Amino acid sequence: MVRNLIKGVGVLEQNFLVATEWLLLAFAASILSIRLGISVALMEIAVGVIGGNVLQIEITSWVNFLAGFGAVVLTFLAGAEIDPESMKANLKESVSIGLLSFLLPFLGGMAFAYYVFGWDSNASKIAGIALSTTSVAVVYAVMVESGLSSTRLGQAILAACFITDLGTVLALGILFTGFSMKVVWFTVILIAVVLFITPVAAKIFEWYGGRVSEPEIKFIFLTLLALAYLAVTSGSEAVLPAYIIGMAMAGFFMRHKETLHKMRAIIFATFTPFYFIKAGALVSFNALYTMAGAILCFLIVKIVAKFIGVLPTTKYFSYGRRAGIYTTLLMSTGLTFGTISALYGLANNYIDKSQYSALVAAVILSAVIPTFIAQKWFFPVPGVEESSSLSLVTENCSLERSAGNECKD
């Protein structure tokens, strides 16, 4: 809007103007988040919707890169925060929750698009894949902000997110992209990096750690960027190797918490605002109006399918009522892989623009609505950060009792 009043500005001036608009929105989101007590990730998406539809902010190539890199490092941090011992202890429930969190929305979304909306088979598959996702970025941001990332409940949810999104990536690869020699080579390189990244990082941290120039953080960023390039070149997604490398280095970063906190500060202050604001900017008021019925249907299908799959599983593993609903709502979120899947379908003519708009709007709304409900009414630790050494059952039961509910040990 302001940009239209300025005539004849050069490229450099234009870039500074665009950056000013985006950082102004990020700053406003932070203030509103603090004032209203709402997660900053949700506020950034909300101001992004206003920025994209009212202020008509520009999404430039460098904005896309900053947003993409923010998603990559945020995903890496989510993996790096998972305690290996907690991962082993929660493996059965994380795999069960993550698998059902993918499978039922995938089948439900695909069937709904095909039989109710009459989409063809390829479009229906894209719909199922887009609706099956869980947003690691949103869940991790909420976990960090609320202090749950270090609890066993938080660890179990983050691990389940990885299983869900791994299913999404595999489904997209098997049903559409196939497997080429590039995928094989990328897999071999990724395995090699997983095996050698920790000892190499240990040497670099030992030799060069603690300097003002932070070479150890630059080394991590370099590794993530190189793997992101190889992933995209092979037809995969940039965020997938980031999560795997983060999990591979989780034990290492248990001994280097200070570096992890520095990286978190860099990412949350600089990169993730672009990622979340861009997500909001992709929501069109016009699409919300003209495609409201389809968007609402897809959103309901996704959330209902997640509840059918995840909530009974949390009960089976003795989660308390609040913790079970909270887990289910967070597993109902979607963003990165959902929009990526929809964009892939549009780029390859499997879906048209109206179908794309409906899917993207449903996916982005799923990042906002379930998260808001979870944080507002089902937050399991009201003002208390539980120790990760507690058993998951004991932790959840104590939370239930503190909320005045009954819980069976």
From TrEMBL:
Record's protein name: Transporter, CPA2 family
Organism (species): Sporomusa malonica
Gene3D superfamilies referenced in this protein's UniProt entry, alphabetically: 1.20.1530.20
One Pfam family per UniProt: Na_H_Exchanger
Domain Cation/H+ exchanger transmembrane: 24-372
Subcellular location as annotated: Membrane
Protein topology in the membrane: Multi-pass membrane protein
Transmembrane domains' residue ranges: 22-50, 62-82, 94-117, 123-144, 156-177, 183-205, 217-232, 266-285, 291-311, 323-344, 356-374
Domain of life: Bacteria
Family per record: Belongs to the monovalent cation:proton antiporter 2 (CPA2) transporter (TC 2.A.37) family.
Keywords annotated in UniProt: Antiport, Ion transport, Membrane, Sodium, Sodium transport, Transmembrane, Transmembrane helix, Transport
Gene Ontology biological-process annotations: proton transmembrane transport; sodium ion transport
GO molecular function: antiporter activity
One GO cellular component term: membrane
